[in-house]
Amino acid sequence: MGLRPTKWDENPPEQRRRIFNRLRWAFDRAAAFQAASSQYALYYLVPPPAPPDIIDRVAVAVGNHVVTTSDIDREIRVTAFLNGAILDFTPAAKRATADRMVEQALVRTELETSRYPTPPPSEIDPILAQLKKERFPTDTDFQRSLAEYGITEQDVRDALLWQRTLLSFLDVRFRPSVQVSDKEIQDYFDTVVKPAFQAAHAGQTVPIDDYRDQIEATLTGQREDQEMSKWLDQAKKRTEIAYHNEAF
């Protein structure tokens, strides 16, 4: 699950940090998207464009949803773009992407059946503007990078809207059941925050109140992630999921 940053001397806006952490969770539960809100290193490598003659096929059936080969291709490209990473179209990478998209499909089904509120597309405008500001000197650079990754600005907008939707779902579905005690906050401060602060600022003291809100947000997020993981495990058991291995 996505983990919050624990570098306590840096404090980017909480909402943007959590949003980008959640996006990384959605795309890759195995590798936390810890620094994406502040570091968008791009290698400017030219990846191959999507071959135009590929016949789309169903890769995975998830209940009433399907994940196609083109869905997987686009997911790989958008994820690599957002992470500033090199494209990986190996069979193993495609299968791992399909696994992640199965989980996304389960969440989408829950959103549809339970009628959870979804954010309007306009909420993405400031997030996309921040991404452009931090990674691309000009709009020309942004458009060039999109072309190099074989995606469109709408693909990026859709991915950012999904991350915002997921964050809203987590807060509505799991946050009400999460409680963090004062003892847990103190323990986290004593074992994580205080040692890290003293290592960076030898001889200085740090009061817990300076970090109480951040610690509570971190522990709350971790509990939400744990509850989400349990929910996904249960959803997989009650949903018919069929992989078409020839698609990989």
Question: How would you sum up this structure, described in words?
Answer:
- Helix content is 57%, strand content 5%.
- The chain has a single domain, classed as Porin chaperone SurA, peptide-binding domain (Triger factor/SurA peptide-binding fold), CATH 1.10.4030.
- The longest helix has 26 residues.
- It is globular.
- With 248 residues, it is mainly α.
- Helix 2 packs across helix 3.
- The N terminus is likely disordered.
- It contains eight helices and three strands, in the order αββαααααααβ.
- It starts with 13 loop residues before the first helix and ends in a 5-residue tail after the last strand.
- A three-stranded antiparallel β-sheet has the order 2-1-3.
Protein traits:
248 residues, mainly alpha, Triger factor/SurA peptide-binding fold, three-stranded antiparallel sheet, 8 helices, 57% helix, 5% strand
Shape category: globular
Largest sheet: 3 strands, antiparallel
User: From N to C, what is the helix and strand string?
Assistant: HEEHHHHHHHE
Query: Kindly, what is the distance between the CA atoms of the first and last residues, rounded to a whole number of angstroms?
Result: 25 Å
Q: What CATH first level would be assigned? A: Mainly Alpha
Percent of residues in β-strands: under 5%
CATH architecture descriptor text = Orthogonal Bundle
